UniProtKB/TrEMBL annotation:
This is Uncharacterized protein. It comes from Pelobates cultripes (Western spadefoot toad).
Length: 101
């Protein structure tokens, strides 16, 4: 009974973190939209700075999501396709060919 309890606690914490990050992402998109609209009405450098900052943060979030997805995809490929040994053998073959020169 201990293992399911810990699993449920971890799942609830992970869902809380995901919900919070999604909420922060939506708030960031809203602030970007509002600042962009305000900048089109009245061009001020302060709006440009906040727009650039929000864009950087959005790009960082997208990069983190993409790298996580890529990591899971690689892990799934190596675990399910059973070709991990072939990939390692190819790397070793290339390194052996370079070291023989």
């Amino acid at each position: 009974a201990h293992k399911p309890t810990i699993r449920s606690i971890l799942i609830s914490q992970a869902s809380y973190v995901k919900h919070k990050s999604n909420h922060d992402y939506i708030d960031l998109l809203r602030s970007l939209r509002d600042d962009t609209n305000a900048h089109t009405i009245q061009p001020v450098d302060a709006y440009l700075n906040t727009i650039a900052d929000a864009t950087k943060r959005i790009n960082k979030i997208h990069l983190a999501k993409t790298s996580y997805t890529l990591q899971r995809l690689k892990m799934q490929h190596y675990s399910q396709s059973n070709k991990a040994g072939k990939a390692l053998a190819t790397l070793l073959w290339k390194r052996q060919a370079q070291s023989k020169i």
